[in-house]
Structure formats: structure tokens, C-alpha cells
Amino acid sequence: MLNPEQAKERAQDLVARARRAGADAADAVYGASSSEGIQIRLGKLEDVERSESEHISLRVFSGTRSASIGSSDLSDIALDELAARAIDMARAAPEDAYAGLAPEELLTHGPFPELDLIDPAEPSPQALRERAEEAEDAARAVQGVTNSDGASASAGFGIFALATSHGFAGAYGASSHSTSASVVAGEGAGKQRDSAWRQTHHVEDLPSAREIGELAGTRAVARLEPGKVKSGPMPVLFDPRVSGTLVGHLIGAMSGSAIARRSSFLLDRLGEQIFAPGTAIAEDPHRPRGLRARPFDGEGLATRARNLVEDGKITGWLLDCAAARQLGLEPTGHASRGGGGAPGISVGNIHLEPGPLSPAELMADIADGIYVTELIGQGVNGVTGDYSRGASGFRIVNGELAGPVAEFTIAGNLLKMFAQMTPASDLEWHRAINVPTLRVDGMTIAGN
Q: Metalloprotease TldD/E N-terminal domain: which residues (predicted)?
């Protein structure tokens, strides 16, 4: 695989080809990855996966018209054909007054922050197998576990490079390590399944495989013999496994493209009290070893730490350059690039500031409520904020967890949920969106 400097040169070369072919402006994104994974089930090797990929995409502009195209064939002939075809496509595309590269004066040129995303350790296939075996053995050793969906261990490496025709060029690499286990508890129609999973950039940051396996087994057994819940309004606590999804919905609604299309439930709510006073949601794309750490965005702008929510109020929209032009605002360094096409929106490492109370203290005054550990389905309306999802978890009775429950729906409206949200003190730091246990009062439960 190429190193980051070579990857940057590949992207620069394609931009130069596009300019020679007649593009008024262009940018190119190069991505490559390799990974190896081992899957174990019931103590036996079930699957070995080894993958390598390399892709480059080109976006060209002809006046206010643009087109994007990509290829995994990186030969000189293929790249010249790619550039010529992209320009032909752009000249036939409709005009877009908001499309274009980032303003040149806003580009970042380094030195880029050191994010410590590359682990020089490369586990051997045997080491990966041993890690997967240890995770499954630990899960199956938990009393009540009766079967296994398997355990896996993987390691990989990826490179991202961006170059533009007006002077930006940058690249960075990141390694990846993960361990997971999924097991079944119980017998017959009463079986329950659960899992545990962790991903890091550095293998030394992974919990032990035994810890991950034991957690998967303990979770599965805890779900046995679930009861039903009655319908009606009640407080709901969201476990850290799922609480980050609520912040994810907020981030989607803060996207500049959603605001420009007037399709966000946050429209016209800048400056309003969305959360309780004192609530803060912070972004830090430069957090070392963070899963969403990155030194620059998908248009060559600097990324930086900021509060997305401060004292319960949204501080601004998340803008790529096209949305910024449409809204008459400055881009915010949140552009992202995938395998091709125009930029999207993404954020760096996110966390919601914890509160002073532990989860036990947060539920102490709840006579009848729900503690949610799993969410099912995608019943969220990004335009209205209406929220309805299937769920499972545990009952809360007289301030304590009282047994598993399943097959119910929780519903509300995200704006009302945010206003009623109280964070606990148990913030964890190993996810891309790190959120403690959350209490939301007044949600509607639909059970039996």
C-alpha cells in the first residue's frame, strides 16, 4: 500500500491531468485500505477475510457545472480517460451557482496536528485467531449462554488523500483494531442474543478479549425471560450503548444542507434554548487516537475543536462550502468525502458533558420507568423531529432495575426530548459519539 505522501501525489497527479484536459477547477480524493479478520464459532475457525482496495475519485468544474467520477484502475491510460470523461459529463450537467471548490484563502496548509492514528503493530493471523478464540471462550463460559454466533478479531489500515487545483494537498493514514463477540442464552423460544464490540486505532487500547467476551455473555443472559410493559407516559433512561444515537439525530439536523433545503426540525432555532441550561456538546477532531480524528476536512479546510451546543443552545450549523454559499455563511470545516461525488457533512469526535449524578442516582426517584439498552428500526422524522423506535431493555421499579422487557416502542419528539434530557456521570470515551446514560422524562411507551 502507498504511504500518505505517495497517496497525496496520486491525488495531485489526477488533478493535473484534469486541468490539462480542460477543467476550470478540480479536486481528487484517493483512498486505500487493507484489512484482515478472523471469525471463530463454537471454537472452530469459521472464516478468514483478507481485503485490499484502492480507489480514486475526481470532481471537475466547467464554469458552474460539475461532475464526479471514480475508478479503481489507476493506470495512466485509465486516469487520462477518467479526466476526459469527467469534463464531458460536467459540460452536459446543469448549472449550480453554489458548487465549487473551497475559497482559496480558507484552505489550510499545515503543519497538520499529530493525531497518533497509526499503530505500527501488525497482529499476525495467529494472534487474531487467539484473540477471537479468547473472546468466544469467555462468552460461552458465562452461565446461561447456550450457543454462539461467533467472535471475531480484525486489524486494518487505511489512507485518505485530497488534492485540489487551487493549492491544497494533504493525506493521513489510520490503523484499526477490533474485537467482537455475539452469543445466545437460553433455550427454545426463550432464547436471547446480545453482543459486545470494541474498535480502536491502537491495539493496546482494546480491552482484553476476555473482557469483551464476558460482557457479551453477561448481556445475553440478562435478557432472558423478558416481560411486557404497559402503555403510557413514563421516564426513559438510555444506556450509553444507545444514548449517542440521540446526539446523532441532532447532528443530522444541524447539517447545512438540511437547513438550506428547509428540511430540519432545527430550522429557525438558532439561539433558542434546545437543551437544559448548562448542557454542552463538544467536538474535538484533534483528540489523539479518537475514532473520528482528522487533521483537515473533505474540502481542505482546517478542522478545530468547538462546542456544537453551549449552555443548551446550538452554536451554528455544520457547513460544507456549497451549503455555506447557499446560506450566505462561512464554511465550518465539516465537509466529508467518500468514494466519489460532492462533499457531505461529518463531525469529529463528539461528547456530551456528563452530569453530577450516577445512573443509579438518576433513576432513584422513578417509580415506574424503562432503561433502554437496544433500539430497533429507523422511525425518526428529520423534518418534524417525531421519534418512534422499537426497543428492549429493563424495567425500572421504585428506583431500581427490575428485570428485562422487550417488544415495546418508545415515542416522542426530539425537541421535547432534548428539553427533558438529563445526563448521568458515566461518560465513556471509546466511541465516535461519546454520551453518558441519559434520562428523558415524559416519553410515550407503547407495550402490551
A: 26-90
327 class by beta-carbon count within 10 Å (0-12 exposed, 13-18 middle, 19+ buried): middle
For residue 339, is pLDDT > 80? no
**Do residue 309 and residue 273 come from a single domain?**
yes
DSSP element (H, E) containing 78:
helix 76-92
Q: How many domains does the chain have?
A: 2
Round to whole Å and give the CA distance between 354 and 356: 7
Contact residues for 31 (Cβ-Cβ < 8 A; gap 6+): 53, 54, 55, 56, 158, 159, 160, 161, 339
- Please provide the DSSP assignment of 192-204 as one string: EEEEEEEEESSGG
Do 137 and 254 belong together in one domain?
no
CB atoms within 10 A of CB 334: 28
61 half-sphere exposure, CB direction, 13 A CA radius: 19
DSSP states of 226-256 as a string?
Answer: -B----EEEEEEE-HHHHHHHHHHHHHHTBH
| Predicted local distance difference test score (pLDDT) of residue 448 | 73
Q: What is the pTM of this model?
A: 0.95
Cell numbers representing residue 31 in the block: 483512498
Residue 15: all three cell numbers together:
488533478
- Domain extent at residue 197: 4-221
Among 198, 208, 205, which residue's Cα sits nearest to residue 178? 198
User: How far apart, in Å, are the Cα atoms of 21 and each of 79, 80, 293, 299, 348?
Assistant: 11, 8, 35, 22, 36
The one-character DSSP state at 369 is E
